[in-house]
Amino acid sequence: MPDATVKQSSPVQESIATAVTPGDVSGKPRKISDITCRSVVFKNETDTYIFDIVETVKENHQNVKKVFRATLEGQEVIANTGRRKHLPSSPSPYFPQMIAYGDLILSHSLERGCILVITQEKGIQLGYKMIEQTPKAEKRRIRNALIEAVKVLRERDSMHGDPQPSNVLWDSGTGKLKLLDFEIMWENYNEDPADKVEVLGIWGNIDDGDSDGKAMDVGE
Questions:
Q1: How confident is the model over 6-47, as pLDDT tens digits?
Q2: What is the C-alpha to C-alpha distance for residues 98 and 167, in angstroms, rounded to an integer?
Q3: Per residue in 133-167, pLDDT tens?
Q4: CA distance 184 to 52
Q5: Which of 51, 140, 148, 204 suits a disulfide with 72, CB 3.0-4.6 Å?
Q6: Contact by Cβ (8 Å): 85, 116
Q7: Which residues does residue 17 pair with via DSSP β-bridges, in sequence order?
Q8: Could you tell me the pTM of the whole model?
């Protein structure tokens, strides 16, 4: 759990429209005859987009948040619905890339809301049990990559607002780590070290085999 210093933070007041430059997607509308019950149409200030739902990955009825695997302009993507989300202010190898964003205007099954489409990344979501069963050498790789990812957030004076294992994607083959779900972000006024907030929230008290048994600090 985050310590008391987190309470002094406030939500980042950053519009998603200025968060990241969208990827190269034409946004060209298709014919009405191409739209099916699995199609979702959304638009922003300049473009209109259509993606087709392939599979529902996650659903939260309380805040109308849904996550889908989808296709957009022939590209496999992840689409999120719900309230407006934030992404770090510039691209990074530790975060998915935003492809398109906008407001929902047509869907057979979704209510009105914000749509965010990001790149579909390789890897598996972490879990406490999965981490506990991982060999120590692999734990160090994951934890070191996690700290590097949090360093990038700190460089942007930001904190992840929902640090938990399921919001981390790890590809053991490539050693690449991605932080997910930036629906909640906080300004980091007090420059809190990662091991007291994100890493502690994601890693918990799991022993990763550090020789001195001390938590690593992003400032080291």
A1: 333 333 323 222 233 344 444 455 566 678 889 999 999 999
A2: 16
A3: 999 999 999 999 999 999 888 888 888 888 899 89
A4: 26
A5: 51
A6: yes
A7: none
A8: 0.71
What does residue 66 show for φ and ψ, rounded to 5 degrees? -135, 145
Element (H, E) at 42: strand 39-43
CA distance linking residue 25 with residue 43, whole number of Å: 13
Pairing of strands 48-60, 65-72: antiparallel
For the chain, give me the number of helices (H) and strands (E)? Answer: 3, 11
Give Rg (Cα) of the chain: 18
By C-alpha distance, which of 34, 68, 72 is closest to 50? 72
Q: Which of 94, 212, 101 is nearest to 150 (CA)?
A: 94
Q: What is the DSSP letter of 45?
A: S
State how far the Cα of 220 lies from the Cα of 216, in Å rounded to an integer: 7
Q: Which of 140, 149, 120, 2 is nearest to 51 (CA)?
A: 120
- The Cβ-side half-sphere exposure at 130, using a 13 Å CA radius, reads 13
Q: Tens of pLDDT along 39-61? A: 999 999 999 999 999 999 888 76
Please tell me the distance from the alpha carbon of residue 210 to that of residue 158, in angstroms, as a whole number: 27
Residue 196: per-residue pLDDT: 73
Token representation of residue 208: 């990763």
> 211 pairs with which residues across the strands?
none
The residue whose two tokens read 């400032």 is 219
- Strand, helix or coil at 102? strand
Domains for the chain: give ranges and CATH numbers.
16-119 (3.30.200), 122-203 (1.10.510.10)
Residue 144's closest CA among 193, 177, 108?
A: 177
